[in-house]
């Protein structure tokens, strides 16, 4: 069963790729969707066995890389953390496959699209099930590749090409840090397996906490300092993959891909891989308070930045993309505050209601002839009642409306941030509350401008408008129920006090860092702050856009510089394009390309060696004159050289050298050179 979970998506990818032409679009969609539905059923059974019954499973398949002390195996671990991610990945992926059969029904390249989706699901499963860092990195790079392929699926669109390249290049920066972190961990612990590293780091840090100064193997610093450096390098990988501030610029542009791609990759699964990696390596991060401080500050800053930017965006999908970026910030700063179970709980809940929002947005785009600008929409509620209901449920869950799925995780994150009683905790709590206000504001701004206000849609579009068909409506229906009930049904199991659901898959917080218990006893007015902020933001958005449109227009004019600053995404792209990228491009061309690639590497690499031996062989071929006396001289020259060699060998002090032989050797060399020049001249005259 466990190996079927891994192999079924790959089987669907292979069948969809190689038999897509014979199966046709419908056949490829049925095959790949069936494989993913079976995988999701097996994942739910696996979650029951492992998570609820407490029976984790570890599989060793075969050896992969075995070189001296470096030993990487094909091994898979199915613990509570893994099976929780598997349920999210496979359920959302199967629903997106079914949704795509309706959404992409007019596309001529459907088999390729389905095979890409299945390949992505396979790599995502490899990422979460691997029992070592190399398997995780394989899945990490695989989902990055599939993200590139799916963003660039409509490869004739220039913006899709640019967005795919941007996503790949920006993620390379994060992947470089992640790879350096893996190299450093192997050099320090001589292993890449999670169980070995986590066991050894506990042993080493116990000695360090006892007051003994232990020198690290990397830089000669203390072990605690070197662990901090490695944790920060690993976090750089999470910053790139989970679109944290600084390396976030690829995520909004990735909306150029088809909407099912945005729902699967850039909302529910791939963008959460960085958070998953931090949670998986939580036993390592727990020994680095400075790294946790940096993580909490970065996460809170990302949540605030993305929320303020989403306020003034007009593209339907980009608003939801910035909400994804903001929610990822909540997950990250929860990890920085050592509340990994709460972060994981929000990751799972967020996957359902964010997939619902993206798929609902796709239903709107599908109904109105691919129009994504909210300013060109409006008045869709009577025509798309089912889609409107689904998007309303997703928006309420996103803003943390009481007793929906998002409420049970988002509010707990803010509560534990306040209960940590630290600088980073207070910073994260208040930025998180302000971000919650902005989140509810732009969520209801999206609803009002798309569904409620007077329409700007042309009459020709209204003649063909339609609500979601069965293939699109069924995933929306299932995700709507998940966005309402999943948080309530799983809260006590995942973050309830005394729950043993996670067992040893998450780090046990060090003394004084677990604020989940303190959060239970906070005053009610503290617990109500996020709810009040969220409801206030939603009511303010409805009031301003419905009753104060002229005031809102004049207010926007009055704060035009701030509006431009937020609409241009804090000018991150401009700063990168104008000030950071040109020096790196110049360095890449003049140093990396001309000096290294075309210089040293070509001179001393294969091309240089081949050129050197070609010239040597050409010079030797010049001696092939075809004249007998030249060959005789060459033979005599070699014989004389052999005699001189034996003379020197017999008389190491050079006392018995025969000068006549030496003179004869020099004379022969001159003669053969002169004869060669003469033959060259005769050839040139002919």
Describe what you observe in this structure.
The chain is globular, with a radius of gyration of 33 Å. With 686 residues, the protein is mainly alpha-helical. Helix 3 (80-103) runs antiparallel to helix 4. It has 28 helices and 2 strands. The protein has helices at 2-18, 20-52, 80-103, 110-129, 133-151, 158-189, 194-209, 223-241, 250-253, 259-268, 273-280, 282-285, 289-310, 316-336, 340-367, 385-398, 405-419, 423-452, 459-462, 470-495, 516-519, 524-547, 549-558, 560-567, 572-604, 606-621, 628-650, 659-685, and strands at residues 57-67, 70-78. A two-stranded antiparallel sheet has the order 1-2. A hairpin with a 2-residue loop joins strand 1 and strand 2 (70-78). Residues 677-686 have low confidence and may be disordered.
Structural class category: mainly alpha
Main sheet? 2 strands, antiparallel
> Order of strands side by side in the largest beta sheet?
1-2
What is the mean predicted local confidence, pLDDT?
Answer: 85
Summarize the amount of helix as a percent range. over 70%
Order of helices and strands: HHEEHHHHHHHHHHHHHHHHHHHHHHHHHH
Number of strands: 2
**How large is the count of helical segments?**
28
Q: What is the terminal-to-terminal distance? A: 81 Å
What is the beta-strand fraction?
under 5%
Chain oligomer state: single chain
- Please tell me what the overall shape is: globular
Low-confidence stretches: 677-686
- Rg (CA only): 33 Å
Topology:
Blueprint: H1 2-18, H2 20-52, E1 57-67, E2 70-78, H3 80-103, H4 110-129, H5 133-151, H6 158-189, H7 194-209, H8 223-241, H9 250-253, H10 259-268, H11 273-280, H12 282-285, H13 289-310, H14 316-336, H15 340-367, H16 385-398, H17 405-419, H18 423-452, H19 459-462, H20 470-495, H21 516-519, H22 524-547, H23 549-558, H24 560-567, H25 572-604, H26 606-621, H27 628-650, H28 659-685
Antiparallel strand pairs: 1-2
Helix pairs in contact: 1-2, 1-4, 2-3, 2-4, 3-4, 3-10, 3-15, 3-20, 4-5, 5-6, 6-8, 8-11, 8-13, 10-15, 13-14, 13-18, 14-15, 14-17, 14-18, 15-16, 15-17, 15-20, 16-18, 16-20, 17-18, 17-20, 17-22, 18-22, 25-26, 27-28
């Amino acid at each position: 069963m466990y190996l079927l979970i891994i192999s079924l998506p790959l089987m669907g990818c292979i069948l969809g790729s190689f038999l897509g032409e014979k199966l046709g679009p419908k056949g490829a969609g049925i095959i790949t969707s069936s494989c993913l539905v079976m995988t999701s059923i097996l994942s739910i059974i696996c979650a029951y066995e492992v998570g609820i019954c407490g029976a984790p499973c570890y599989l060793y398949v075969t050896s992969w890389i075995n070189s001296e002390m470096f030993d990487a195996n094909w091994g898979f671990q199915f613990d509570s953390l893994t099976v929780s991610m598997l349920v999210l990945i496979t359920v959302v992926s199967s629903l997106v496959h079914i949704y795509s059969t309706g959404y992409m029904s007019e596309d001529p390249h459907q088999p390729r699209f389905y095979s890409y989706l299945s390949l992505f699901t396979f790599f995502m499963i490899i990422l979460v099930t691997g029992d070592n860092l190399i398997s995780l990195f394989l899945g990490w790079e695989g989902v990055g590749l599939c993200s590139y392929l799916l963003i660039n699926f409509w490869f004739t669109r220039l913006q899709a090409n640019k967005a795919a390249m941007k996503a790949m290049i920006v993620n390379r920066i994060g992947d470089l840090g992640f790879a350096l972190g893996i190299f450093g961990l192997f050099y320090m612990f001589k292993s890449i397996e999670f169980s070995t590293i986590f066991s050894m780091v506990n042993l080493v840090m116990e000695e360090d906490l006892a007051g003994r100064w232990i020198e690290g193997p990397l830089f000669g610093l203390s072990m605690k300092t070197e662990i901090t450096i490695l944790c920060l390098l690993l976090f750089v990988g999470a910053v790139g993959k989970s679109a944290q501030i600084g390396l976030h610029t690829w995520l909004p542009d990735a909306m150029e891909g088809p909407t099912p791609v945005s729902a699967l990759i850039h909302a529910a699964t791939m963008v959460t891989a960085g958070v998953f990696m931090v949670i998986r390596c939580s036993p390592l991060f727990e020994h680095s308070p400075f790294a946790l401080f940096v993580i909490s500050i970065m996460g809170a800053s990302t949540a605030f930045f993305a929320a303020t930017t989403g306020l003034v965006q007009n593209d339907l999908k980009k608003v939801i993309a910035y909400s994804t970026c903001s929610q990822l910030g909540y997950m990250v700063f929860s990890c920085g505050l050592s509340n990994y179970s709460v972060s994981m709980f929000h990751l799972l809940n967020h996957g359902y209601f964010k997939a619902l929002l993206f798929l609902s947005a796709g239903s709107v785009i599908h109904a109105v002839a691919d129009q994504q600008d909210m300013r060109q929409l409006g008045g869709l509620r009577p025509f798309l009642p089912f889609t409107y209901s689904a998007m309303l449920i997703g928006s309420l869950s996103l803003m943390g409306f009481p007793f929906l799925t998002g409420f049970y995780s988002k509010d707990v994150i803010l509560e534990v941030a306040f209960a940590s009683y630290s600088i980073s905790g207070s910073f994260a709590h208040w930025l998180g509350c302000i971000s919650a206000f902005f989140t509810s504001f732009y969520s209801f701004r999206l609803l009002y401008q798309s569904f409620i206000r007077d329409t700007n849609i042309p009459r020709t579009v209204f003649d063909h408008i339609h609500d979601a068909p069965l293939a699109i409506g069924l995933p929306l229906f299932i995700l709507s129920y998940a966005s309402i009930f999943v948080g309530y049904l799983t809260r006590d199991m995942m973050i309830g006090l005394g729950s043993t659901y996670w067992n040893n898959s998450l780090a046990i917080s060090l003394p004084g860092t677990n604020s989940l218990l303190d959060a239970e006893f906070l005053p009610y007015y503290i617990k109500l702050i996020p709810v009040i902020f969220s409801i206030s933001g939603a009511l303010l958005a409805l009031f301003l856009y419905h009753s104060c449109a002229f005031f809102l227009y004049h207010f926007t004019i009055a704060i035009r510089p701030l509006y431009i600053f937020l609409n241009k995404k804090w000018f991150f792209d401009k700063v990168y394009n104008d000030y950071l990228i040109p020096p790196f491009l110049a360095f890449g061309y003049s140093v990396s390309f001309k000096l290294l690639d075309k210089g040293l590497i070509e001179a001393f690499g294969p091309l240089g060696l081949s050129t050197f031996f070609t010239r040597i062989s050409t010079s030797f071929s010049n001696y092939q004159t075809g004249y007998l006396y030249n060959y005789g001289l060459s033979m005599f020259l070699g014989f004389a050289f052999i005699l001189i060699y034996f003379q020197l060998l017999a008389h190491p002090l050079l006392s018995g050298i025969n000068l006549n032989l030496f003179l004869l050797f020099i004379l022969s060399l001159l003669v053969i050179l002169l004869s060669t020049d003469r033959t060259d001249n005769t050839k040139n005259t002919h």
